[in-house]
Amino acid sequence: MRRPPGVTIIAVIFCLLGIYLCGKSLFPFASGISYYLSGRSDPDLHAREAFGLWEVMVALPFVFGAVLLSTGWGLFRLHNWARFTAMLVLVVTAGAELPQLVIGVSHGFGLAFAGLLEFFLHLKIVWYLFKQSTAEKFLQSVKVV
Known about the structure:
This protein is 83% helix and 0% strand. By secondary structure, the protein is mostly helical. Helix 4 crosses helix 5.
């Protein structure tokens, strides 16, 4: 079964974003280790630990990155669950863009245009994954045992 080129592009984007977020979640560890090895104390470490933000700073990007990475892998393999997960992630992030669009309008045309472009790009990808011809490719890849 040949994978549609649009699904391949979306899967690559999901995998790259997942790798980026998983890697980004490791940076708080790197900054803490560098301060520890240099003998200095991290001025922000005590504040982050006091408010419990240390775990959140590390865990949330890692979990979201793992979801994106596994969704990208599922799209490569034409799994139907990955198509639904990708559509859900894109709809939720498109909804999260709406407040930024309102703020962007008050901060200038360029920021508003970029936010609007991203919003419509998310919806276009959801529409592409929801199309009958694309959905059939995912359903044909299911193997009956």
